[in-house]
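In the laboratory, one determines a bound structure by crystallizing the protein with its ligand and collecting diffraction data. In a computational setting the workflow is compressed into a single prediction: the sequence and the ligand go in, and a structural description comes out. We illustrate the idea with aspartic acid.
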Amino acid sequence: MKVFKFGGASVKDANGIRNLYQVIQKKGGQDTVVVVSAMGKMTNALEAVVEAYFEAPETIATHITQIQAYHFSHIDDLFGAEAKAVKSQVLDLFQELKDFVKTNKSPNRSFVYDQLVSFGELVSTTIIAAYLNAQGIETIWLDARNCVKTDAYYRDANLDWEKTQAVIKAAVKRKQTIITQGFIGSDSNNFTTTLGREGSDYTAAIFAYALDAESVTIWKDVPGVLNADPRVFDNTQLLHQISYREAIELAYYGASVIHPKTLQPLQRKEIPLFVKSFVKPEDPGTSVSKGQTLIPYMPCFILKKDQVLLRMSSLDFSFIVEDSISAIFALLHQYQMRVELIQNSAISFSVCIHNKYNRLPELIKELESKFKVTAHQSVNLYTIRHFDERALDRILNNGKKVLLEQRTQETIQLVTT
Ligand code: ASP
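The predicted complex, in structure-token form:
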């Protein structure tokens, strides 16, 4: 079995879906599980519905109408005179969504999020399965919620590997082309859960693991994994081969090309991962597998914007050691701050954090009862793997002030203004 994954950008419109069909025809065929995200920016659009549900219920209907219209215009483009049957299937899904909005009693925002946002993937896969069938590729639409079994930690659910593996093995037969949704699963009460934003890569890895697949291919709008994000850095270069370990490191430091959770299951079974261009499917792209760290070997740049640098020092000149460090970490965990970098000296402790849930003022207030705290907001965190002096100069010459630097043998990190 092969597992393919198509992200939102690759299926953002009718042409994207036509292109997906071409790729499956040339490279997939039978014995392929195709994992698909929501079309284009539909997950963001559905997040706006959740926002409206809690903050401005009178605007929900408008949001839903817009999302429906977006899908319908692409259905018209793909199916022309035959659009009616597909539209009716999609309308059923929108009806389900509206029914949930009307009847839900739960005030749990994350629960509501998962029940609503999951419709992006349900709709995209419904349209794509219908299109593939219409083109003569016999396709089975599989509801990932029946396969990907998780706990009830809504918005970032954790997998029940045993159950998931058993269900997938039973559901996926050989000699089939299967279309399923990325990102979504269900808990033990069969309520929908999601695996975290960009979680469709992870879904592909879950299916591959359960099926002992021969490979996973992520089809993207870039030629493969580059040594930096081309939207941020100039002169980026394609990496031909990356070891699992290096890919996990890059994902950890924030390289956005592969979802961090994806690599672990693949590495455990040594299933190779290919990242390829959906525009040029014949090109080799990047292979992530057991093997050499990086080919070609070169510095890799990662930028995380909008971080917070907190510097804490003791109020009475006492050392910051185990007890105070563990108190700091307990608070960082409590306020859901993701720690990106730490550095300490005898009486000071610095930490670069991602303030994902906007809880910084509360955190600082608590910290100030124990420490003198300085906060630098909206700072940049640059990471260079396999750095050399020239690579470092590229960052240092951009006129930004370096607030903190940390080096290990392979990696340098700079917090700048
Ligand atoms: N549709 C989800 C998102 O946009 C999952 C994914 O695309 O991987 O985050």
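The first helix runs from residue 14 to 27. Keep in mind that any predicted model is a hypothesis to be tested, not a measurement.
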